[in-house]
Specification:
Elements: H1 3-22, H2 31-57, H3 64-74, H4 81-122, E1 123-126, E2 129-135, E3 142-145, E4 152-156, H5 157-162, H6 165-181, H7 183-196, H8 201-223, H9 228-241, E5 251-252, H10 264-273, H11 280-300
Helix pairs in contact: 1-2, 1-8, 2-4, 2-8, 2-11, 4-7, 6-8, 6-9, 7-8, 9-10
Family: Belongs to the peptidase M48 family.
Protein name: Peptidase M48 domain-containing protein
Cofactor: Zn(2+)
Length: 305
């Protein structure tokens, strides 16, 4: 089987794997590993899809994707119009993916800059919570504004009213986990993919699944420092208070339907109270597998078509 055919198989397999992973529940037992697997699938799908188009176009050269594309720019007249169109489609798709990622980054940066300026006007520090800003608003809100040097953790006055000191400490640890692990960067590629395919159900389910895993990863980090019951209670109090959606470019708690047993917060609460993590050797094997999935398309780029 040629390199191009294998790339097409990898692209199809990655899409099928993503479809199955959106419905999986075992990922909740090891969210960090599952996030890496999601990233590997996304990278493999993008590289394999681009490589399939390029590989079909430059197949007459018989030098694989990398060598064929190099030959194409030196002598494109050796290819038929259909082959040239395939190469152009591959290069265009690659540029679209890169451009939409840059657009998503720029949009998030602008939204965070505006929100930080707003916080400078309406929020204030609290000596009892170093590094945390208090927003004078009666609604419940707790979120972080990630950044390289200017990360902020924000809670509202309404949050201080509904949470006890231990529950508040657990929520702050959760938000700080988002900042430390840069979960905003984890979500960016999936957000940009949503911009490219806004009507795709599988892309929408993918973003929802990764967002939930990110929250679970932050829960796990907070649980290292605080009893799980404190964070679980805080989440339920937030659910009852029905917090408003978090501002653009931030990560935080959102409102849910407390009657929905499959709602993200209730799923997280059950997971916090009854953890069932995978053994470390199994997690290590999954990480090795994810790495192989991510690099496989690059290896196939060198196989002659």
């Amino acid at each position: 089987m040629t390199g191009t055919a294998l790339l097409a198989l990898v692209a199809a397999g990655s899409a099928f794997g993503a479809h199955r992973l959106t419905r999986a529940r075992w990922t909740w037992r090891t969210p960090r590993t599952a996030i890496v697997l999601w990233q590997a699938l996304g990278l493999a799908w993008g590289l394999a899809s681009i490589g399939t188009l390029l590989g079909f176009g430059v197949a007459p050269y018989g030098e694989g994707v990398i060598g064929g594309v190099t030959r194409f720019f030196a002598d494109p007249r050796a290819l038929s119009p259909i082959r040239i169109a395939s190469v152009a489609a591959g290069l265009t798709f690659m540029l679209v993916l890169i451009a939409m990622l840059l657009v998503a980054v720029a949009g998030v940066v602008r939204a965070r800059r505006r929100h930080r300026a707003l916080l400078a006007l309406v929020a204030h520090g609290d000596p009892e919570m170093p590094g945390t800003l208090v927003l004078d608003h009666p609604a419940a809100a707790a979120y972080c504004v990630p950044g390289v040097r200017s990360s902020k953790v924000v809670v509202s006055a309404g949050t201080l009213e509904i949470l006890g000191p231990y529950e508040l400490a657990a929520v702050l640890d959760h938000e700080r986990a988002h900042v430390r692990e840069r979960h905003d960067l984890v979500l960016l590629p999936f957000t940009s993919l949503r911009r490219i395919f806004p009507q795709s159900r599988i892309v929408g389910r993918t973003l929802d699944a990764v967002e939930l895993l990110v929250e679970m990863a932050a829960d796990d980090r907070a649980r290292r420092h605080r009893p799980a019951k404190e964070l679980a209670t805080a989440l339920l109090r937030f659910a009852a208070a029905r917090p408003a959606p978090t501002p653009a470019g931030t990560l935080g708690v959102t409102g849910i339907d407390t009657a929905d047993e499959t709602s993200p917060i209730l799923v997280r609460v059950r997971r916090l109270l009854s953890p069932a993590p995978f053994p470390r050797p199994l997690r290590g094997a999954m990480l090795v597998g994810a790495t192989l999935v991510a690099v496989l398309p690059l290896i196939l780029y060198a196989i002659p078509a």
